């Protein structure tokens, strides 16, 4: 879907106005959303940075250089060096790998669980629904940051645990959303029609109900990825996420918490912090554009 | 309404029970061990001491018996004793909760006042540069991590300009004064409030836009009422109903956010206590805190629903 959205609008659109598909319309609406296009470009740049980090770095990100400790930005070190002489530019570039991969994996886990539980709950209804929704209520009853911190401290800090914790604890929102939609769609006539010609529940779910929730789930997953990146940064900031020496924007901020660094070496923490904000902002813009494109009825 | 509240409270009982099971299970899987942290290997007869201490803390019992003991205490309203300091968890929470509540309530008031005002302005000026600027700032507000914002505020307002203290709740050693307290709360409260401000603004804007096109608003305008009166009496009162829900649902977010803000500003609340307990593997304190936070979420959800029904007579819970 996203690959479709990134393609330049082909001229074929203008010739075939009569039979314009929903996807075409959605793409046009998305392309008109300026902030979303900005977000898309920025995110693509960040993904490219993450993928090609070894070619963009100027020094190995974990190499200490005791002759160049705590240097301000210069031609040799674009963003300066940290207290052990590591090149900040290279670390920021490599840290984008962490944020992007944690964001993508965590949101994939949570979307998978959320869609699975939500659709079973919404389609099956009755006792199954009641049970699954009580479980959802329980997970939702914890403030997400509190339970994420607790579970992360139990599992121990590592990048994989960070993905797992965020993914496994943030699905209830999607589950409720999907359930609500399933509940309303399953009463509609196209489902009745499918059932009357003998479609099995699995077929109805897969062929008739899923396509209808794809839009909502895509939007929710986009915002979910933005949140996952924020949560990873917070966990790493607290020392419960990605561990040194692997650089992550969050743990770079953690290393800069003392007042002397805060005041004397702002290059150590300003750039990683701004990168988190930029990444999250871009994804939120994309989410907003997708919502306008895929779900024009919603007001927010 | 009364039956609705009773029913909701009854539903919360199995949920709360499930929550205690989840919390206990998680805490029992905690790696490392408070006892090992307390007794050094160098101590003579370390092994015997460890065994003895485990026995005293009840850590040698099978897990279901440990849960039973904990649950028994809980039903009497006791959250157990800290492994580290030996103090009762109830006391620890009671002494530290007021600081957190103070921080949260100031942040909430700031967020409501700012968010609603900006949201209304944004809606009234829809599709002007004012609206676009606020919308952009709103997105920025939900995208900047709280801890980074906190660091920027400390850097700018404390270290560079010297306007506010960098940390703490009051000046150490000085006699307590409200002014001093307020002086300390400005930065942390603002850092905590920003993301909520942005959220409230977005919802207020959407809600005002929806109400603005109603017939009764046009009637009020046609009668010749001035803009301010129409905005406050006819639009805002109706537009605030959905916003109240968002405010209620953001209490847990504020609670979670206070953990990190309290750490950055060394604010002596329960969030800071929780982080210290996590580092110290102090499971009774962790369990007490997590259980309390879950209870707060359930309570604020219920209160939000009640407030919703009370504000909007069209909504009936039966």
Break the fold down into its secondary structure elements and pairings.
The complex is a heterodimer of chains A (300) and B (318).
Chain A: H1 2-6, H2 12-15, H3 22-32, H4 34-51, H5 53-56, H6 88-124, H7 126-140, H8 144-155, H9 159-169, H10 172-185, H11 189-196, H12 201-237, H13 249-254, H14 259-264, H15 267-294
Chain B: H1 2-28, H2 34-38, H3 46-57, H4 63-75, H5 89-124, H6 129-143, H7 146-160, H8 178-212, H9 215-222, H10 227-249, H11 251-264, H12 270-280, H13 283-311
Overall description:
The complex is a heterodimer of chains A (300) and B (318). By secondary structure, chain A is an all-alpha fold. Chain A has helices at residues 2-6, 12-15, 22-32, 34-51, 53-56, 88-124, 126-140, 144-155, 159-169, 172-185, 189-196, 201-237, 249-254, 259-264, 267-294. In chain A, 72% of the residues lie in helices and 0% in strands. The two termini of chain A are 22 Å apart. Residues 1-13 of chain A have low confidence and may be disordered. Chain B is built from 13 helices and no strands. The mean pLDDT of chain B is 88. At the A-B interface, α7, α8, α12, α14 and α15 of A face α1, α6, α7, α8 and α11 of B.
Major sheet size, sense and barrel closure of chain A = none
Q: What does the radius of gyration of chain A come to?
A: 23 Å
| Beta strand % of chain A | under 5%
Mean pLDDT across all amino acids of chain B:
88
**SSE pattern of chain A:** HHHHHHHHHHHHHHH
Report the uncertain regions of chain B: none
In DSSP terms (H or I, runs of 4 or more residues), the helix count of chain B works out at: 13
The overall strand count of chain A is 0
Beta strands of chain B, count:
0
CATH topology of chain B: MetI-like fold
What gross morphology of chain A would you assign?
Answer: elongated
CATH classification class of chain B: Mainly Alpha
